[in-house]
Design a protein that fits this description.
By secondary structure, the protein is mainly β. It has one domain (2-309): Lipocalin (Beta Barrel), CATH 2.40.128.130. The chain has helices at residues 7-17, 22-26, and strands at residues 37-51, 57-75, 78-98, 104-125, 130-146, 152-167, 170-176, 179-196, 203-205, 208-223, 232-245, 248-252, 255-259, 264-275, 280-291, 298-309. Strands 1-2-3-4-5-6-8-10-11-14-15-16 form a twelve-stranded antiparallel beta barrel. A three-stranded antiparallel sheet has the order 9-12-13, with helices on one face. A hairpin with a 4-residue loop joins strand 4 (104-125) and strand 5. It is elongated and about 65 Å long.
């Protein structure tokens, strides 16, 4: 049952996936026409494989949706978006160990439901520089089943997450303000804590802490439309992610099992925002990620499609 030490990692990844980056979550909001509020919604899906340092691994398929509303405040120096959002995700994970020939062997599965409520505040300067702050509260309802035992065991967890992200675009070739090619360095730091309830008297789930950071760059092409529409935006993005602390554990019959994970990986993707009408906009983003030098240790892909109304 040492593979069960991977289960808290699944919940951590669900929490991170519910925030991600500003442009995955909210699209492009550098240029906003006269509006006081912006309701939005998005659907998202992820596939992720990770291997622990004790020769156990998991494969996670996770998908869900979010709905939110932001109030927009215009200032001389730029504008601010402040809002709330709520969402739901469902994940299905399979856990594997290794047999005597180092081949993966199925050990058990986990089904998890993630309910979350978040608050966000984003400040844009007139030159496009931004700071994005996010807070998230999570409730996880989990059910795992071991291959040999067959009994379904339920337990829950509660989590909090805080994220701060900053970026600033620099014009490469621009025919007018906010239109043309831009390169945008970005940085982000996310902290998450999850407290899990114990499934039974024999199994004690450890509380989980994780600190994750990112540096990256986004290359953006903004194309002008008429005065009443936002610009059409197309971008490519590349990031390096690092986990500064990423161990998870479980105690079974007073024996403690822990798992560590690869802590450095790269990510690349593309995104697009299009106006469907003068007030309705579609945004989408797809990405691939992989551990440096060790694809089997960590790789995955994800996508999102959203709508927002000014």
């Amino acid at each position: 049952m040492s593979w069960l030490a991977l289960a808290p990692r699944v919940n951590l990844e669900q929490g991170f996936a519910s925030v991600r980056t500003l442009h995955e979550r909210r699209g492009e909001n550098w240029e906003l026409k006269e509006t006081e509020g912006q309701p939005w919604g998005r659907v998202l899906g992820d596939y992720l494989t990770q291997k622990g340092d004790e020769n156990s691994s998991f494969k996670l398929r996770d998908y869900g949706f979010q709905l939110g509303y932001d109030r927009i405040e215009k200032k001389e120096a730029g504008h601010r978006l402040t809002g709330i959002f709520a969402g739901y995700r469902v994940g299905k994970a399979k856990f594997y160990g290794e047999d005597e020939n180092k081949h993966p062997r199925y050990q058990g599965k986990l089904r998890t439901h993630h309910f979350h409520l978040g608050a966000e505040h984003t400040r844009y300067a007139k030159d496009g520089g931004y700071v994005d702050l996010v807070g998230l509260m999570s409730y996880f309802r989990n059910q795992y089943q071991a291959r040999l035992e067959g009994e379904k065991v339920r337990y829950s967890g509660f989590g909090v997450l805080f994220s701060v992200e900053a970026g600033k675009p620099f014009a490469v070739s621009s025919s007018e303000e906010k239109i043309g090619w831009f390169i945008e360095p970005q940085a982000q730091l996310i902290y998450q804590f999850i407290a899990s309830k114990n499934p039974n008297d024999k199994i004690e789930m450890s509380n989980s802490n994780a600190l994750r950071g990112r540096v990256g760059v986004r290359v953006v092409r903004n194309r002008a439309l008429d005065d009443e529409w936002q610009a059409r935006s197309l971008y490519a993005v590349a990031n390096i992610w690092k986990d500064f602390y990423n161990r998870t554990g479980v105690r079974i019959n007073d024996v403690k099992f822990e798992q560590g994970y690869g802590n450095l990986w790269w990510e690349a993707g593309v995104g697009l925002q299009l106006p469907l009408s003068r007030k309705l906009y579609l945004y989408t983003d797809v990405r691939y990620e992989q551990q440096f030098g060790h694809r089997a240790g960590h790789h995955g892909y994800r996508g999102v499609i959203g709508l927002k109304y000014n």
